Each structure stands twice: as C-alpha cells, then as structure tokens.
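Section 5.1 Outputs to date
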Amino acid sequence: MPFAPVLRSEWLKIRTLRSLCGALSAVFAVSTAFSALAGVSGTSDPEFDPLFMALSGVAPGQIAAVAFGATAVSSEFHGGGLRLSLTAVPQRGRWFAAKTAAVGVPVLLVGLVTGSASLAAAKAGLGDEASGLTSGEQVRGVVGCGIYLMLMALLAAGLTALLRSGVAALGILIPFVLIISFVVGDVAGGLTDLMPDRAGQVILHETSDSSLGPWTGLAVTALWTAAALLAGAWSVRRRDA
C-alpha cells in the first residue's frame, strides 16, 4: 500500500480520538497560560533571560505533548488495534513511519502556534524588559519551541512502541522530566546538560550557561528521539502484534 493513504488513515485515527485532540489543545493552553503568568510576574534577577521567561510555559506544556505521543501509539495495543492495522498495512516499517509522521506533524504545527502565542502573551506583560530581544532570537525561540515539542512527543511515541504500554512510557518520562531535570539537575552538574529535555530547552534561552549551543542542544534531543524511534520500530517489526 502506498504511504499517503497509510498516513491519511493514521491521521484519521488521531483526529477522531477526543483524548488526543484534548492533549494537543492542552499543549497550547497550558504553555500560553504559564508564559502569560510569567510575563506579568516580573523579576529582579540580574541574570534575567526574557526569551526563556516568555517561553517558560513550554516546560509544563511539554507534559501534554509527551502524553499525546504516548497515547497515540498505546491506543494500538488495546483491543487488537495493532493486529487490525498490520492486517491492512502488512509492511510494518511503513505503518510505523506513518504513525510517527501523524504524531510529529500536528505537534510541530501546534508547537509553532504555541511558541508564537506564548511569546506574544509574555511580551505584553514584560513590556520594556523584553525590548532587547532581537527578531532573530524571537524566531529562533518560536521555531525551537515547535521542534522541541515535536521531538518530545516522538520520544514518547518511540518509547511506547518499545514498551508496548503508554502507562509505562509516561511512568518513565514524566518523572524524568519533572524530577531529574529540576531536582537532580542542579546537583549533578554538566551531565544533565545531555538529557533530552535540558538539552532541547537551550534553544528557548537568549543566553545559556549550558555547554551546548541552541541548535546543538536540539540535536542532542533529536538523537535521543531517533534512538527511541529506532527501538520502537524494532519492537514493531520483531514482536507479535
């Protein structure tokens, strides 16, 4: 079967599941709301980073993106869904590629809109404090927001395919993002700079003390995501439906 109809069918599955549409809506709503609150809160920190402040809502918003990626794949492991999908599309690699595209593209688009809205909402609150941001920095932040959220959703999708369980994938990723990065991160030092969330979020900063640059940090996250997707693809190809 050609790739286009497979992709269309996978997108139809996602579009008709209310929980997935709700997760995408939550990415936008949560990120924008937290960024707007950050914008009006103000700060006296001499190392204040207006770009990261404006896009700080991405940190809680990414939880919804991770949930979207995990749920989109885990739905195949309930009620014999994967067996039916592979009966229609015997080429397992093609099916998994279509599934990941159906997950990644919507999150990328929502992420770009979310980044733009979050930046606009926060800048309105920050006022003159955000006046030093250049157009290039703002574009980098918005584009980076979209790519970062997409990579985190695909990381969750790949891990779910490997573990064949959305609950297990979320049980690993959510504590990883919420606990290790924020609690252990400052203690462990530079090692945490290579974690997928910490590395990818460098692009949301105007300046950062990380050992990684904005795009190299995003590349590190992309490597984590690629590894998860390859492992997930292996699981789909080798294990029984």
